[in-house]
Specification:
Two copies of one chain form a homodimer.
Chain A: H1 3-13, H2 18-25, H3 29-36, H4 44-53, H5 58-62, H6 71-74, H7 78-85, H8 95-102, H9 114-128
Helix pairs in contact in A: 2-3, 7-9
Chain B binds a DNA duplex (30 and 30 nucleotides) through helix 3.
Chain lengths: ~130, ~130
DNA sequence: AATCGTTTACGGTCAAGACGTAAAACTGGC
DNA sequence: GCCAGTTTTACGTCTTGACCGTAAACGATT
């Protein structure tokens, strides 16, 4: 997901108009429109005021955004790829689950084996679906 | 922690010189120095190349950085905040775990109750630690 | 002190962030 | 259909500040 898509998502999620966010954030309407269409990028300072307008931290605002060369989306975690390749255990796992699972990590550490991934998958599935 | 402190931290952690990072990232030495002293802020694009130079995602680079008006607590998923407030179940959960758990979602959906969060936490902890 | 390696200070430039105005694209009512 | 009102987009302009090059300052070693 690109940054400008994220920005539009946040606003439409809340059912706000450009005018509303513009007034809250103190940013002009045309510029907001430009940002949401990817015509230009916000400075870090503008990012902060936008995050504040949506009551988010900058980190949370950026969390779903894939930057070019992001380590996480270039390759699947090792064991997860194995799980997906396993027709019986992982053959039916959908792409949204893959992207959800791919984000799991603690200080750069991740599950290693396909069994571990499967275990996590089943546990999350039980709770989230 | 300010962004410029974070940048200096990353470089000194790795024992690199301005020259080293400069060559890896393709950024001039004086400008790197400026960034690390807070004389100027990087553009989002420069942030990405810096994150790549340190082999981090942009989110991980920014994770310890406190922006003005950070509202990270308000962005915590509902039940997760409850879990953290629970002294016996969640009192000992560390910040890196919180940020790790916060990323869990499927198509915008997340665990709702503190019991669900705790269940996931224990399951992940067993595998990741 | 002199030389070498590293970091900082300082100006200049030019891309692009941000805005204002105005046109375009909806939306609903008549 | 047409028209009024609202919301979004296109475009031109200004101005800030990101980024660089050069040179000076700092430090260590001999």
């Amino acid at each position: 997901m690109k940054l400008h898509e994220r920005l539009r998502e946040l606003r439409s999620e809340r059912g706000q108009r450009l005018k509303d966010v513009s007034e809250i954030a103190g940013i002009s309407i045309p510029y907001l429109s430009d940002l949401e269409r990817g015509r230009t990028n916000p400075s870090l300072e503008t990012l902060q005021t936008l995050a504040a307008a949506y009551d988010l931290s900058v980190n949370d605002l950026l969390a779903p955004v894939e930057f070019y060369g992001d380590a996480s989306d270039s390759a699947l975690p090792k064991g997860l790829a194995d799980l997906l390749a396993d027709p019986v255990l992982g053959g039916h796992i959908t792409p949204d689950w893959v992207s959800s699972l791919s984000r799991i990590e603690l200080r750069g550490k991740r599950p290693q084996t396909k069994e571990d991934w499967y275990d996590i998958y089943r546990n999350l599935k039980r709770i989230l679906e």
